[in-house]
Amino acid sequence: MDISELAKLLRCPSCEDGPILVAGDHLVCAKCAREYPVRDGIPDMLPQEAPETVEGLGVAPEQTPEIEPLDQQELKILVIHGPNLNMLGVREPDIYGAVTLERIDDILQHEARALGVRLTTVQSNHEGDIVTAVQSAADGYAGLVINPGAYTHTSIAIRDALAAVRCPKVEVHLSNIHAREEFRKISVTGGAVSGIISGFGADSYLLGLQAAVRLARKAK
Ligand code: DQA
Q1: CATH number of the domain that 185 lies in?
Q2: 28 has which bridge partners?
Q3: pTM of this prediction?
């Protein structure tokens, strides 16, 4: 069975009922943000320890003493990457840059720790899975950052899902969608979010996370 099909059948053993999403090469609970590795296509659902360092950034815990341990962080933020964003780094680098999605997620996790929030990141190429991920934000998330990719311009289903979720939502785009082809200038999803950040490359995600946390703290 495909891992994304299997994930739909699983529930988080750590918080007991959280839905499980595919996040790159591992699984993650959409409710409590626990991560579960996948080895040879088989998920290891035993609860994992939180990582001690941010991989790739070379940040050791003793260098960041001001950052609270995960357990004491209150706000949960969900980042959803839409279709083809798993191809960042090799996909049209002149438009989207050379940075990979894995690197963007590392940078976002580092920023989340600095901001004192707990971050879950997921990527999907499938509209229905993105709808499900958006809906999962109702499970205690204080904010949502979404790059709906090409679904930005077409998906009423994702727009409706966004409209149904009450937390602050920030839409982000690496490229400036208003400076590109006519069909990209319309954001169908944009009317259902708090605001849009577009055109700052990978920094759009960083700015989007900061905006979502600011809005979430104001809404508390
Ligand atoms: C994008 C812009 C969309 O038009 C495109 O389909 C993408 C990426 C961006 O981040 O610039 O996949 O959302």
Answers
A1: 3.40.50.9100
A2: 21, 35
A3: 0.73
Rounded distance from Cα 129 to ligand 1 centre (Å)? 18
**Where are any strands of DSSP class E within the chain?**
20-23, 26-29, 35-39, 42-43, 75-81, 117-123, 143-147, 169-173, 195-198
Ligand 1 and 150: CB distance under 6 A: yes
- Return the exposure string of 66-94: e unless at least 16 CB atoms fall within 10 Å of the residue's CB, then b: ebeebeebebbbbbbbbbebbebeeeeee
Instruction: Give residue-wise pLDDT tens across range 69-100.
Output: 544 448 999 999 999 999 999 999 999 999 99
Domain that holds residue 31: 1-50
Determine whether the shortest distance from the Cβ of 146 to ligand 1 is under 6 A: no
Residues 43 and 146 grouped into a single domain: no
Residue whose token pair is 């007991």: 16
